[in-house]
Specification:
Layout lengths: L4 E3 L17 H11 L8 E2 L6 H5 L4 H9 L4 H7 L5 H24 L1 E4 L20 H11 L6 E5 L6 H6 L6 E8 L12 E5 L5 H19 L3 E5 L17 H17 L4 E4 L8 H21 L4
Parallel strand pairs: 1-2, 1-3, 3-8, 4-5, 4-7, 5-6, 7-8
Helix pairs in contact: 1-10, 5-6, 8-9, 9-10
């Protein structure tokens, strides 16, 4: 039994078919965690869809209606970069519900992970870059609405800048956004996060970790959040098709573990989401995401929730 819960739904698959985004990775990760006995069936909870009220705390009514009814314009679908389908809409509604549930569980147990989510390119009024709904923003707003938290920090380690999240929380002093990303990569327009850590092409393990971890530590000590939402991208990996950084799998695990240690040492609960991963071999992406859960398990054993 894990000392925390994972959140998964079989309908997380975005129904993309042959696409650079390997939407089967959610199912494959779930299967691997059970097969390797990293998690037991009782460790994994199934979310419901986020409610429209949950979504409308972040997204415009017009955008929610378009996603629900499949009435996106051609240019909106082009920006989204994935074909629209009812299955896609169901998957992103469930992912948002899953990140809400993971946030609630993290407040109880110190850590939880949604085995989807991290759709950080979604803006309030449109989707971009494979991201239709900003599940992390939706979860933060729900926890604030429930008065479960006041302040949240988002640590976004996807290789691509978290532009939607930065824009949504741009004028909000209750949410601190941190993004470490490859500067010369998607998206072209990068609204400022509270702290951006832009990296040159080809950055390797040591430079990456020595840039990220002190910045996370300083941000935690100065901002004092009630919860940390972790966007754990697999795409800084050296074999990623959409990334230009040169990180190894061991460094990516050290990244995850380092952030989790910093948060848990300060009694800040952590909610993890998966975000991007486009390795040539989908097994590599699954392995990196699995390591995020293993890093959390190691930290939970070292620093039990108090």
């Amino acid at each position: 039994m894990l000392p925390f819960k994972l959140v998964y739904h079989p309908r997380y698959d975005l129904n993309l078919g042959a696409h650079v985004f390997p939407s089967q990775k959610f199912r494959l990760l779930h299967e691997l965690l059970l097969r390797e006995k990293i998690a037991a069936p009782d460790d994994i909870l199934q979310p419901g869809c986020a409610s429209d009220d949950d979504l409308l705390r972040v997204h415009t009514k017009d955008w929610v209606t378009k996603l629900k009814t499949g009435t996106l314009t051609a240019s909106e679908i082009m920006k989204l970069e994935v074909p629209y389908s009812p299955e896609l809409a169901e998957a992103v509604w469930l992912a948002a519900g899953g990140t809400i549930l993971a946030g609630q569980l993290a407040l109880r147990d110190g850590f939880a992970s949604n085995l989807s989510g991290g759709f950080h390119h979604a803006y309030a009024n449109h989707g971009e870059g494979f991201c239709a709904l900003n599940d992390v923003a939706v979860a933060i707003r729900r926890l604030q609405f429930d008065q479960a938290i006041k302040k949240a920090i988002v640590v976004d380690t996807d290789v691509h800048h978290g532009n939607g999240t930065a824009h949504i929380f741009g004028d909000d002093e209750s949410v601190f956004t941190l993004s470490i990303h490859q500067e010369n990569n998607y998206p072209a327009h990068k609204p400022p996060s509270n702290l951006d850590l832009p990296l040159e092409d080809g950055v390797e393990d040591d430079e990456y970790l020595s840039t990220l971890l002190p910045a996370v530590e300083k941000s935690l000590d100065e901002f004092h959040p009630d919860i940390l939402f972790y966007v754990g991208g697999a795409d800084p990996y050296c074999e990623d098709q959409l990334g230009g950084l040169r990180l190894t799998k061991s460094a990516l695990k050290a990244r995850d573990k380092g952030v989790f240690q910093l948060a848990r040492a300060r009694n800040v609960p952590v909610t993890a989401t998966l975000a991007g991963g486009y390795a040539r071999r989908v097994e590599d992406t699954i392995g990196i995401h699995t390591n995020t859960i293993l890093a959390a398990l190691e930290v939970a054993r070292e620093l039990p929730s108090s």
